[in-house]
Amino acid sequence: MNAHMEALPIIRADTSHVQAIVDLEGRSFSPTDRFSRKTWRHLLGPANHNGTSITLVAVDVGKVVGSINVLIRSNSRNVRIYSLAVDPAMRGRGLGGLLMRALCAHVPKRYEAFTLEVRSDNKSARSLYERLGFTVDRLLPGYYPDGADGTRYRVTWKQLSSTSPQTSDKRTIPSQRQDT
Ligand SMILES: CC(C)(COP(=O)(O)OP(=O)(O)OC[C@H]1O[C@@H](n2cnc3c(N)ncnc32)[C@H](O)[C@@H]1OP(=O)(O)O)[C@@H](O)C(=O)NCCC(=O)NCCS
């Protein structure tokens, strides 16, 4: 794990972060996979206040460099990870895993599991999820608007909370890494 990454504050986002998250998504997703500004205003405003949405952001010298959002329904024990993005300049250094693990401090333990959908051809994301202990729950043929297949993953709250930073970054080779 890169020490610089571990030191980044990961905080709960609010409406003051709408623009920064829209910009981060613009750098991370194709236009059809991004959420609109209106959706983010809702997720970070009313849905944040009524507890049905939690968004965390990682901040590096005042800049939002990573974000994760989950949707919570009071009648379900499963929490849906709705969005995850790391700034292209910060990828491959374990920040995605830190954001995921930070969720456990904000989502009460009574929720049993986290689920998410990912494009089946998104190797980077799938590799991260599998390192964190996610397992394939279901294949979703033609799930995306462009007809691409999806995969639903699931991990228990307990499993995610017990994943160590080392496990979430399998590339840790201290003698060969330079921390900035
Ligand atoms: C998926 C994502 C959040 C992973 O975040 P991360 O902080 O880079 O995660 P990790 O450091 O654990 O790296 C995950 C994998 O990405 C690879 N990777 C992708 N782009 C990379 C880059 N620019 N530099 C280095 N590694 C990169 C890593 O090698 C690693 O693969 P491996 O496990 O086979 O070695 C990030 O790649 C991202 O924001 N992608 C675009 C948005 C997206 O696809 N979100 C998920 C939608 S479900």
What's the arrangement of secondary structure elements?
Elements: H1 3-7, E1 10-12, H2 18-28, H3 37-44, H4 46-49, E2 53-60, E3 63-71, E4 78-86, H5 95-102, E5 113-119, H6 123-131, E6 135-140, E7 150-156, H7 157-162, H8 165-168
Describe the structure.
The protein is of the alpha+beta class. It has a single domain (about 5-170), classed as Gcn5-related N-acetyltransferase (GNAT) (Aminopeptidase). The chain has helices at about 5, 20-30, 35-45, 45-50, 95-100, 125-130, 155-160, 165-170; strands at about 10, 55-60, 65-70, 80-85, 115-120, 135-140, 150-155. Strands 1-2-3-4-5-7-6 form a 7-stranded mixed β-sheet. Helix 2 (about 20-30) packs across helix 3 (about 35-45). Mean pLDDT is about 90; it is low at about 170-180.
Compact summary:
Helices cover 31% and strands 27% of the residues.
Biggest sheet: strand arrangement: 1-2-3-4-5-7-6
- Described by the principal axes of the CA atoms, the overall outline is globular
Helix content: 25-40%
Unreliable parts: 172-180
Number of strands: 7
* Average pLDDT, all residues: 91
How many separate structural domains?
A: 1
CATH fourth-tier homologous superfamily: Gcn5-related N-acetyltransferase (GNAT)
Strand content: 25-35%
Q: Tally the helices: what do you get?
A: 8
CATH-scheme architecture: 3-Layer(aba) Sandwich
Terminal Cα span: 12 Å
User: Could you say which small molecules are bound to this protein?
Assistant: coenzyme A
- The structural class is alpha+beta
Radius of gyration: 16 Å
H/E topology pattern = HEHHHEEEHEHEEHH
In the CATH scheme, the class would be: Alpha Beta
The CATH topology label is: Aminopeptidase
Q: How would you sum up the major sheet?
A: 7 strands, mixed
